[in-house]
Specification:
Layout lengths: L6 H23 L3 H5 L3 H15 L1 E2 L8 E6 L5 H8 L3 E2 L2 E8 L10 E4 L1 H4 L2 H11 L2 E5 L10 E6 L2 E6 L1 H6 L3 E2 L1 H6 L1 E2 L2
Parallel strand pairs: 2-4, 2-5, 5-6, 6-7, 8-10
Antiparallel strand pairs: 1-9, 3-4, 7-8
Helix pairs in contact: 1-3, 3-4
Length: 187
């Protein structure tokens, strides 16, 4: 038995490091820090978790020049996602956060952050994800059982991840073994 930290502990440290780095970069670049500080720490952590999840996905060759992260225009996470991903890269492409008004606006998205309203239309989103090779991410327990590819939530002050590998595999996307190691697999 080794004393090496678990993958979950390393992931949690990576999220904390990402937040610290974000704060340092904002300060050093003279960015509008007051706007960034206006976000709750928990909202920034959620944005960081989504980023870390995306980095543990084996993405196919992506069409287009940017990585499209999409959320409904009324999703409460949208402002923090815009701030957090400004200048970020995923899958070696710059991230563009796209607010979406109607369902057809999700076409071409690589990662879709689902809110409660979108969860009611899970069948449509799963079909779109399979066609577009898009990753569906949402916050809340038991959402992976409903067809979300990766769900995250806090339970007793611990980050929990659930992956529905069967529906994820249907999109042509593959989760890294490191993500699968720390997540609860559901069907």
């Amino acid at each position: 038995m080794t004393n090496s930290p678990s993958v979950a502990a390393r992931m949690q440290r990576a999220v904390r490091a990402a937040l610290s780095t974000l704060a340092a970069v904002l300060c050093l670049t003279g960015a509008n820090v007051s706007g960034a500080i206006a976000f709750e720490k928990s909202e920034l952590v959620k944005a960081a978790v989504i980023e870390k999840i995306a980095r543990f996905i084996d993405w196919p060759v992506l069409a287009g020049s940017s990585f499209l992260l999409c959320a409904a225009e009324d999703n409460p996470q949208l402002p923090v996602l815009r701030a957090y991903y400004d200048g970020a890269q995923i899958a070696e492409r710059p991230v563009t956060v796209r607010p979406v008004r109607r369902f057809d606006g999700y076409a071409g998205c690589n990662l879709i952050v689902l809110g409660p309203k979108e969860l009611a239309e899970m069948g449509k989103f799963r079909a779109l994800a399979e066609k577009e090779h898009a990753l569906l991410v949402a916050e809340g327990p038991d959402l992976a059982k409903q067809g979300v590819h990766v769900a995250y939530f806090s339970d007793m002050n611990r980050l929990r991840l659930e992956v529905n590998k069967r529906v994820l595999d249907a999109t042509g996307l593959k989760a890294s073994f490191r993500l699968l190691e720390v997540a609860k697999l559901v069907e």
